[in-house]
Design brief:
Blueprint lengths: L2 E4 L10 E5 L14 H11 L3 E7 L10 E8 L5 E4 L10 E4 L5 E10 L4 E5 L24 E6 L7 E11 L12 E4 L11 E3 L5 E11 L4 E8 H11 L8 E2 L2 E5 L2 H6 L8 E6 L4 H4 L16 E5 L2 E2 L3 H8 L7 E8 L3 E8 L1 E2 L4
Parallel strand pairs: 2-13
Antiparallel strand pairs: 1-2, 3-4, 3-6, 4-5, 5-8, 6-7, 7-8, 9-10, 9-12, 10-11, 11-14, 12-13, 13-14, 15-22, 16-17, 17-18, 18-19, 18-20, 20-21
Length: about 350
């Protein structure tokens, strides 16, 4: 089973999450075949809208000074810049470097740690000639579409890599809470790419690059991006200086399929098998049962529906919860002991990572 390591800074560069996994054909990076003129034109049009983000970590008491770095992009004409939450997590002063070499002070606005998204703002008068990037409809993505990542890995500003959309679906739980409809890509992502845009062939943002996968041999694998529709849905709230708190149940689960159902002796092939219930979580308060050994033993409950909606994956549960707020109540339909179906009312709380 792959282990997920959350890393905010490595050698002074914000790189987000690294997922350690066995080497496999899925992680192989074949050279992309693409239209060079299209990619060059896309770069020429988009690069002015992409920035390098530097955060000063000076500490006079400790007697040291470092600068963390990440990427971001303009999303409107008001000076708003989208990036990752983990890029701007510390309290240091933020400055953004524009493609024309200018450096501007930036203000933190809202952030959503559960989605690893944040919004900054610079003086709109200073960037009035910069055309913002448009957000694509990430729900319309198809595997094999062109995917172009532009950012500032190792402070190489507007470094470009080309690949394809390798898939869309349940990815790694970035912060013990899955981001629904995560975009998988073989476009090479490097330390410092965090917060930069993943673009389609029309130069529109399909996602915000946030994580990379590392094999046990140390090779770079699949990259992950938070889908643009998640950005679009949060943007109004991100414009307010606040921490957005997503609702939380407090479980770790495994998608039930035919083979796992047979192993557990169940007659169903859809649902989420609860492997762990987090302490002091809403799930623990309503006594949902998990698997004490964290292996499929049949001791855990299976969530088969939420508010009457059939559930197949943990990501589907999170996607529905994202339409709600902490304090809202939901009805879980669970299968217990492989036979008995129960309905449990639970009050969602703010995600603990908020």
């Amino acid at each position: 089973m792959a282990a997920i390591l959350t890393i905010g800074v490595l050698a002074g560069f914000a790189i987000g999450l690294i997922v350690f996994a066995p080497s496999s054909r899925l992680l192989e990076r074949d050279q992309a075949v693409f239209d060079e003129k299209l990619v060059t034109s896309l770069y020429d049009k988009a690069s002015a809208s992409i920035v390098e983000i530097d955060i000063d970590n000076s500490s006079f008491e400790a007697g040291f000074s470092t600068t963390d770095s990440g990427s971001g992009f303009f999303v409107d004409t008001e000076g708003h810049i989208v990036t990752n939450s983990h890029v701007v997590d510390n309290d240091g002063e933020i400055r953004v470097k524009l493609a024309d070499g200018r450096t501007l002070a930036a203000t933190r606005l809202g952030k959503s740690p559960a989605d690893d998204l944040a919004l900054l703002q610079v003086d709109s008068n200073e960037v009035k000639d910069i055309k913002p990037l448009r957000l694509a409809d990430s729900d319309s993505l198809k595997t094999g579409q062109l995917a172009v990542a532009i950012g500032s890995p190792f402070r190489l500003q507007n470094f470009l890599s080309v690949g394809v959309v390798s898939g869309v679906g349940e990815g790694p739980a970035l912060t013990n809470r899955p981001v629904p409809k995560m975009i998988w890509t073989n476009a090479k992502l490097l330390p410092g790419n965090s917060g930069g845009p993943l673009l389609n062939g029309d130069g529109e943002v399909i996602g915000v690059t946030t994580a990379i996968q590392i094999t046990i041999t140390g090779e770079l694998g699949v990259g992950f991006a938070v889908p643009s529709n998640t950005v679009a849905g949060l943007l109004p709230d991100l414009k307010i200086a606040q921490v957005i708190k997503r609702p939380w149940l407090g479980i770790s689960g495994t998608t039930l399929d035919k083979d796992l159902g047979r192993l557990l002796g169940l007659d169903i092939e859809r649902g989420v098998y609860i492997r762990q219930v987090w302490p002091n979580s809403p799930a623990e308060k309503v006594q949902l049962r998990d698997d004490p050994f964290r292996v499929p033993s049949g001791r855990g409950d299976v969530i088969v529906a939420v508010d009457g909606r059939p559930i197949a994956t943990l990501s589907e549960i999170v996607e529905y919860f994202n339409t709600l707020r902490p304090g809202d109540q939901v009805i879980l339909t669970i299968l217990r002991g492989g036979r008995t179906t129960h309905e449990v009312q639970v009050t969602l709380e703010a995600w603990a990572g908020s």
